[in-house]
Amino acid sequence: MEFYAELRLRGDEYNDGYGNGLTLSGSSTVRDLEEVSKSAEETVYRTKQGHTLRVRHEIKGDVTVFHTVFENTTSKEATIELLSSFAIRDLDVDRMHRATSFWSAEGKLLSQDLVELNMEKSWANHGFRIEKFGQAGSMPVRKFFPFIVLENKKTGSFIGAQLYLASSWQIEVIRNRETVSLHGGITDRDFGQWYKTVRPGESFESPKAVIAEGTSLLEVCDKLVKAQAPNIANPDRDLPVIFNEYCTTWGSPSFENLEKTAKRIEDSGIRYLVIDCGWYKKTDDENWFVTAGDWNPSPVLFPDGIKAATDMIRSHGFIPGIWFEMENCGKASELYQKTELLQTRDGFPVTVGTRRFLDLRKKEVWDYLDEKVLKLLKENDFGYLKVDYNENMGAGVDGEESFGEGVRKSVLRSQDYFRHLSEELPDLVIENCASGGHRLEPSMMELVSQASFSDAHECTTIPLIAANLHRLIRPEQSQIWAVLRKNDSTDRILYTLTAAFLGRLCLSGEVFDLSEEQWNLALQGIRFYQKVSGIIRDGRTTVIETPLQDYTRPMGYQVVLRECEKEALLIVHTFEGGANPDLTPLLGGWEVKEAFGSDLTSDFQGKVFLLERPSSL
Predict the structure, then answer these.
(1) What is the three-class DSSP state of 308?
(2) pTM of whole model > 0.85?
(3) What is the DSSP-derived secondary structure letter of residue 206?
(4) CATH number for the segment(s) 2-225
(5) Which residue among 60, 75, 484, 502 is the one 20 to 30 A from 518 at the CA level?
């Protein structure tokens, strides 16, 4: 195994071996690189034109952190068409693990032998075998997460990578002989319409990537996830419970509804009461989706102003929260017509369905958001901000030397605005939402306290998706919907609540209509969650057993074991035909200290076990 870099400069030869059009790697830029120096933390190369290429590979704890820096140390401009964040060659592997993702189906594991992908080496060690994947645009988690783990089944060794990149990205697995090469970073010119011109004396640094090795898939994932360094606000460090009213009003929040909710959940252990979308609608029957962007509190829904609502929420002991989709706007907003503030492609506003996109590279846009978002947060004493993002701007926008560079810089400025909000309001708890999980990648997760795990609000697949995300983000940041309805059976309520033990517990629904028996179940769940939250935050997931494939009709059962020193959580859910799962192998060496949930004797039941090591062990 050897660290290196993939680079292609405009004007150089493309690769051969039938790879041109599939990959820009292996060009003459790389073939002609001269190694200048090498240390444990950096390898320096020189191109044939005289540029300097620095590959930084610094060991930090259990991972290696990669950056690649291109320095134009010549007298002429250079245009980069491919630059890897990380690159590794001479890998002896035979299996690939990826995390797939579509709306409301985040993180489903896809494990394939290389032979299934037709990636055996040829008889003559000639001709590239290429598996290239990624996405173009401002939703980094679409079809795939920016993540991969490769395995050698014979030796039981694993190596994994995660990109810190919230815009267009790609990962490539390449073989043209016995061993395999792996690299990833910004999408190249072919895949994502990206290229970058670097003037003499200037440099360009790739986004970060993190690499980990281990003896199991979950060990590698745990190392990658723990390398993430989220900006968790002080009020959120002990994993408090959230109530978000979205699944109560579906986009029509009101003072009256919030007050009913606040009275019901008072003294329950819930810390946040979040006002979701629609608070800005001029009339109750307007569509919240198309009216987003102007951010004027509704005089119909909040006749005494939004401050009256936050004062009421705080009077019941909660931190008030509010929803914004601050980077986009809907077609019924006035902002939608202010094209001077919006992203364009070929001179036309980028319009996706009913959405347009603010250009956060412009000072005027920051001024607008400070007036509409930051000012409202400050003046109305909000302590929680849910930032949603409901469309993708696509492969490119105007304003830079390439469409792809336009997207990259725009997303970086959006991330800068997140930092700006945290600087202005240090105790503000920020939630990252993007139609659920479309921005669950590390560079976004490091800016926030929490993230919406999915838009699977009331689906039976909630425990499946929530378990998937243990491989990709910290469970302490993964906010899971627990929607309670008055018609729910006891088993349904327990199934819903126990699924949220796979991350952050977020209640919703008409809790004021629940019977006392139903509400007492919720209170028991909250108290048990508070007791075990340290395991959720600090533990290590050692088992995820999910034998099923079809998320539309889940069958069998799922078990997740998360260990923390001498304690552990075992979280079990049954699906169709999955009653009475045999948990004996998982309970070996543990004693059940406490449990919450159903008895697991029927389909679609959930139960959480708090385990501890016997004192004799």
Answers:
(1) helix
(2) yes
(3) P
(4) 2.70.98.60
(5) 502
